[in-house]
Amino acid sequence: MTNLMQRIARPVVLAGTAAAGLLAASVAAPSAVATTGSPAPECVEYFQSWRYTDVHNGCGDTVSVTVEYTNGQWAPCRVIEPGRWATFAGYGTDGNYVTGLRTCGPATPGDA
């Protein structure tokens, strides 16, 4: 039984480690706080679910937006080209819903 456990446990641990590495690579921790501005243009729409909030830029120009949530959680400032999509965190199991989109300026190392 021990050999069977070792043979099963290793792939499971490797898969979990690989998944954690992919998550860390796709979600970088913020080094500074992004500056936020006015509400995003109406041509920028969001579609939320408990897992993700997808934002679509239906404008003719590139926009920089961030998502505002009911509990004030941090969301990155993302630059979205016309016709493109960006994915943010969803509202999760605690019901942290999106309240709107705001224009923003990407954070730079000197901001704080």
Automatic annotation (TrEMBL):
One Pfam family linked to the record: A_amylase_inhib
Domain of life: Bacteria
Keyword terms: Alpha-amylase inhibitor, Disulfide bond, Signal
InterPro entries linked: A-amylase_inhib, A-amylase_inhib_sf
Signal peptide span: 1-34
Function: Inhibits mammalian alpha-amylases specifically but has no action on plant and microbial alpha-amylases.
Record protein name field: Alpha-amylase inhibitor
Organism: Streptomyces roseolus
